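Dear support,

Our group has been running a series of protein-ligand predictions, and this particular one with heme C is the one our PI (initials K.S.) wants archived with full inputs and outputs. We had some confusion internally about which version of the output was final, so please treat the block below as the authoritative record. The input we submitted was:
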Amino acid sequence: MRSALHLCNFEKLASGSTFAGVIINRINYLISYNMLSKRSLVGVRLNFHTLAVLFFMLIGTQAFAADPAVVNSDEAIAAGKAVFNANCKTCHKLDQKMIGPALRGASERQPIEIVKAFIKNSQAVIASGNSYYNDLYKEYNNTIMISHEFLSDEDLNNLLSYIEYGDTVDPAAAAATTGADGGAVAAGGGIPNEYLTVILGVLVVVLLLILVVLGLIISVLTKYLTKQDLDVEDKEFVTQKTNLGKVFKSDMFVVIVTALVVALVAKTALDGLYSVGIQQGYAPEQPIAYSHALHAGTLEIECQYCHTGVEIGKSANIPSANICMNCHTHVQNVQGKEGVSPEIQKIYDAVDNNQPIEWVRVHNLPDLAYFNHSQHVVVGEVECQTCHGPIQEMEVVGQHSALTMGWCIDCHRQTEITTEGNAYYDKLVQLHTDSKDALKVKDIGGLECAKCHY
Ligand code: HEC
Ligand code: HEC
Ligand code: HEC
Ligand code: HEC
Ligand code: HEC
Ligand code: HEC
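Confirmed final output from the archive:
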């Protein structure tokens, strides 16, 4: 059966070239020979397979690999990456399916010119009847890939370079990162919590065992000694019982216990007072089970894609349902599941009813304080994660930092400001390097009451 299959494929191919025709005739001969005497001719069968493999490798090298149109140069890849990030990233990854397929290898799946035409105007290529892209379109539930007519031929070439050769994952590096994710060992350099618990547990068991053994030894020794002929004093010593009541009643004991209780109460009270108004760790349940770990982590969507205000103003903004709909018009469920996800249905309901999604606010400074995102993210070049923690790993967002005045001030005392390439600071930096240490936020007024208080 398998051989027969090969046969028809080869015949189809044979019509093309005479040289191939000769080879195929040979193969046909071998196949029929092979089929006639199934049992004895293992050697011939092997030969046929080797030949077939060689043949396909030949076709392979001619048709696909080393296509001169896709350049493997650093400039082309870098330029392509920029175009990709600006236009394609929301729907594609190189090695992973997203809204569209994983792109690596795309220029091998179809002739280059057709791939380029598809990127420019996918619907036109699909309408032209190209069977590969029609199948792909169906596979992706008729999701329309928007057209990119504005891309120049150079852009397209760079794009293909990036798609084929860019951001190749080094397996060793990938293993290292997953390793770091998996346990705190690599990241923190300490012993992870689970191990500590296990070690503690083992220690407790060992100590208990020692206690039991000691108890046994004592009772054996006492038994032995009471049978001996001892004088009265020694006998008293051996049979004496520890008087616990006496210990509890001693002054020393009372003093120690009282001191401990007072200390504990004081600490709890102080902690309580300090944390009035602090909501560190606050992670309310949200109306939709939206996950930053999935969107910002796995799918690597930029924070700014949704929090559009961070670079331009005071407030970061929570995205409206429209931004979700950019993708969720197409993505109706997580991969491999049927129908519409109930969580995503909530987005559709919000849009249909023209009702905003009522996200619960997590971070909230009192009205008396002024905080501006663009000042920190753009001018200060502070990473979101410095203040908000590893958001890209959170299923549910929680407040990472204390958000107290002390927290703001501490950072302003310690953080040097980036002055490079900013003429505004040149003079200040000059004055500063002459006198003191590096220029910190505190030196440009980061501790002035009026900067943070209205
Ligand atoms: C709105 C989402 C979206 C955007 C943006 C998008 N694509 Fe696509 N792309 C798709 C979908 C969906 C498919 C699957 C075919 C279809 O449904 O038309 C696809 C298919 C492809 C294919 C064929 C893949 C294969 O396996 O052969 C290529 C190549 C491609 N896209 C390149 C690009 C490039 C380059 C860009 C940016 C310039 C881009 N796409 C932007 C959604 C998108
Ligand atoms: C796909 C859209 C999207 C992306 C991308 C995204 N977020 Fe969000 N973010 C939201 C939504 C929706 C909420 C409100 C619901 C919630 O708190 O989970 C939110 C809430 C937050 C909050 C809490 C806001 C509050 O109520 O105080 C922080 C902080 C935050 N995001 C930071 C980030 C950071 C940092 C990144 C990038 C690593 C990021 N987000 C990427 C959509 C997004
Ligand atoms: C850039 C594209 C993109 C944007 C923007 C986006 N999502 Fe998603 N979202 C996805 C993809 C892709 C999946 C499915 C991932 C998978 O298959 O595992 C998904 C999955 C989800 C899921 C999981 C559904 C389930 O059943 O587990 C929820 C909920 C969700 N998104 C909510 C939102 C909300 C709310 C917003 C807007 C604040 C949003 N998404 C914006 C791409 C996006
Ligand atoms: C210097 C610390 C700091 C940095 C850096 C920072 N944030 Fe914030 N963020 C805050 C504080 C403080 C609040 C509370 C603001 C308030 O209540 O007025 C906040 C609030 C938010 C909120 C809630 C909505 C709002 O605007 O009040 C979101 C969303 C958010 N941040 C996202 C981000 C993203 C995304 C980044 C990175 C691009 C980022 N933040 C960088 C400190 C920071
Ligand atoms: C992680 C460090 C960090 C934290 C935390 C932080 N800031 Fe800042 N802040 C900076 C940096 C860096 C700058 C300097 C930006 C620049 O170069 O002008 C800055 C500048 C400022 C400025 C402008 C100062 C000036 O003279 O131009 C204000 C106002 C401010 N921060 C308020 C706050 C408030 C309010 C908080 C707490 C809610 C806060 N910051 C928390 C790092 C931080
Ligand atoms: C870097 C920013 C920053 C500077 C500079 C700053 N504050 Fe604050 N301050 C805050 C923030 C943020 C809060 C609110 C945090 C909280 O509630 O714990 C706050 C809270 C306060 C409160 C407490 C209000 C209350 O209801 O609990 C007082 C009082 C106060 N600040 C006075 C001052 C004075 C006086 C100065 C100048 C010497 C000053 N602050 C400088 C950021 C700042």
